[in-house]
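Supplementary Data S3. Sequence and structure tokens for construct A.
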Amino acid sequence: MNLSIRESNPEDLDQYTNLLQRTYQDTYMDESIGLTPDCFSMDIFTNEDTQKYLKSLLVNNNLQKNWLAFDNEKLVGSITCIIKNDDEAEITGFYVYPDNQGQGIGKKLYELALNFSENRDLLLDIYVHNTKTIKLYEKWGWKLDRNRGDSGFFFRHWPEWPDNLEAKCQYMKLTRNS
């Protein structure tokens, strides 16, 4: 593997869209709750609203950084860290292709977000059926954030999903500044 990590730029949107769409389908699909491949289709990821949102994650400034990990020229991972206030930052858009997991890519991206957020507490939300990733976060010291949502939980519904489909999610927090 020839790994390189750099900050994103707007020209990365197509590769970033592809990374997220494929990772969502591989990681978040759960037909037992109605999350079929169609829920994370390329059509959804390339619609105007989704593209606008994804483009906003590629912005880098004093309050937000997005890093991309490449194996040669192929985008294999990403992480976005957003400073919320003096005490908190949020991690979003943290993905590594399943074929590239277990190679230390996620750990390197995570360390960049930790450093950028300084000593702020870190927040994130995650689908509860993504147990493998939840266990990884718990290993890194994250805990269920019972002070947000309904005792730490909420339901997500994308506008493109069937009306009655909601996926249970949980808020997590890494306390660093107590």
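Construct B, processed identically:
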Amino acid sequence: MFVDRYIFQKHLEEGEEILFVCHKHWSQFLGHVLNVIFFGFMLPWVFFMMGFKSSFYLLLIALWTLIALVKLFYDWIDWYADVWLFTTMSIVVVEWHGVFSNTSQRIGYEDGEGLSFAIRGFWGTVMRFGDITLKVISGSHVTMENARRPKEIELALMKCQADYLNQRNLAHSDGLKDMLSQMVAQHIRRKR
């Protein structure tokens, strides 16, 4: 949770805390990892072991491996930074589009109509991932494809939404009590 707080701090308001983080399933990152491992590490080093041992080829492999590491890190950030944050104030939808480009959308708990999810296929069922869609009162929808554990996300949203609405109702009821007690006190003073 510390890592999430540090990475996504710029999307939070002062005093806002992250209660639940919704990521895409790790299998969405796995394909990129396997490609980088095969083409970035294994293939060049296999050629090196097979006899291409010139210093130029070794330098080329080292550079290729460094580029593969950078690509792997970039793909990890791309996977990790596409996230829904359930906070103490609202839902923050963060999408990462590149090193210098990301978007953030804030949806209030009172604006959410509900969350639906669809788990498709054998792998989605076995590995528990699916598409989740947050329905907003305005009629728009926000979707995350291949989200990890959609049922858990739905339950977390319901809990965060209920906690937020209870806190807001308590604050309103305390304000109403204060206002009523002031009105009664003013009425009593006027009667005297």
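The longest helix spans residues 150-191. Residues 33-77 form one domain.
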